[in-house]
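DM from R.C. (forwarded with permission)

"hey, sorry to bug you on a friday — could you get me a structure for this? deadline for the figure draft is monday and I only need the backbone to look sensible"
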Amino acid sequence: MFGELIQNSLKSILQIGELGEIPRNKYDKQIFRERTLSITIFLKLVGGFYQAGVTDNGPGIQPDQLDKVWEPGYSTRGTTGLGLYAMKEFVEKELNGRIFVASIPGEKTTFMAHIPIKTKLPEDEFAHLTVPAASG
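My reply, with the result:
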């Protein structure tokens, strides 16, 4: 979950479509001179929930676009538009939680999940594997 949010935050503050497009020439580096780029990752306990999320100071999301970010195929950067959709499905269906987005265009965006503490995590597909004993 955090991986998707962190990647999206990086793409947002760098104003790129994919991480391989990180600014490399003098003109592109102007974005770094205009402001300090920031991503904050948080995890805390609030009541009976884990509250986890990411805030960035990228360009933000316009109010009329906030609900669209969860739609499969929706993208403003030419990507597949499946990352946030899949994350929402996982948080809500597998973890019995909720995920929210809030944004102030031109200032910041926050994606935050509320996950019940008593959530039973999905089976790890590798849980049945054992580490062989060292031979000696």
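R.C.: lifesaver. The radius of gyration is 18 Å.
me: no worries. The mean pLDDT is 77.
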